[in-house]
Amino acid sequence: MTTFARESFIVFNRQLRMNLRNPAWVIIGMLQPVLYLLLFGPLLKPLVEQLGGNAYTWFVPGMLVQLGIFGAFFAGFSLIGEWREGVIEAERVTPAHRSALLAGRLLRDLLQLFVQAVILVALGLVLGMDASAPGIALGVLLTLLLGGSCAAASNALALTTKSEDVMAPVINVVMMPVLLLSGILLPMSLGAGWLERLSDFMPIKHVVDAVRSSFFGDFDTSMLWGVGWTVALFALAVWWGTAVFQKENA
């Protein structure tokens, strides 16, 4: 095992133990998409079935993306608490690579997201979702990459602002247009023409389309756009997070 991998695993192990000692946020993060699926899914089922296809095959991918975005974007709040308690300063005086401090936390966030995604997909299959195993695997992989990008950006934002009072409004400002224009809950084709055209400039919308396409087994141009945006967002967010951890003084 390389030095970087060993240091990342040490940080991951510590972060995981912290989560297991206080699993409330993990449980809450799991319950939110499950409740959406159980309570909101039946309301949308007649509408989606009119558009053609299995309702839960359409709805579960949107819930996966929502899980990857909303859950991961709040990862930075715990980092602010660690910074305030002096944990970040203590980690920075060790010989560990500063990028490993981010990588270990991202591994924790990705593991949590993966467990939540498996639960959500399993519930979708129980409710009647019709999707192939390769399509589900690709959709979950895209969700993990998107969640990793959101978690890395959240950590970078946390160390930049160092304040929950500043970070929370910023996240809310970002989340509102994402939720409304990405087609997570409702097809954008139901909205006005100008709104649908505006959604084309929302990168997350293309990710949602790609995850849905993978579940439906439609590997077309929308899939390529979604994969491209997912990889680009992940690379950009990891670069930003790594840069902040490397240059920021505690």
Could you characterize what this model shows?
The mean pLDDT is 83. By secondary structure, the protein is mainly alpha-helical. It contains 11 helices and no strands. α4 runs parallel beside α7 (133-161). Helix content is 83%, strand content 0%. Keywords: Antibiotic resistance, Cell membrane, Membrane, Transmembrane, Transmembrane helix, Transport. InterPro entries: ABC2_TM (IPR013525), ABC2_TM_bact-type (IPR047817), ABC_2_transport (IPR000412), Nod_factor_ABC_transporter (IPR051784). Its main location: membrane. This is Transport permease protein. It is a multi-pass membrane protein.
Strand tally is 0
Number of helices: 11
Radius of gyration: 19 Å
- Structure classification: mainly alpha
Q: Give a short account of the largest sheet.
A: none
What percent of the residues sit in helical stretches (DSSP H or I)? over 70%
How far apart the termini lie comes to 29 Å
Shape: globular
Protein name: Transport permease protein
Family: Belongs to the ABC-2 integral membrane protein family.
Main location: membrane
Subcellular location: Cell membrane; Membrane
In short:
By secondary structure, this protein is mainly alpha-helical. It contains 11 helices and no strands.
Notable traits:
0% strand; mainly alpha; transmembrane helix; transport; ABC2_TM_bact-type; 250 residues
Secondary-structure topology with pairs:
Layout: H1 3-21, H2 24-51, H3 55-73, H4 75-84, H5 87-92, H6 98-127, H7 133-161, H8 164-181, H9 193-199, H10 203-216, H11 221-247
Helix pairs in contact: 1-6, 2-3, 2-6, 3-6, 3-7, 3-10, 4-7, 6-7, 6-11, 7-10, 7-11, 10-11
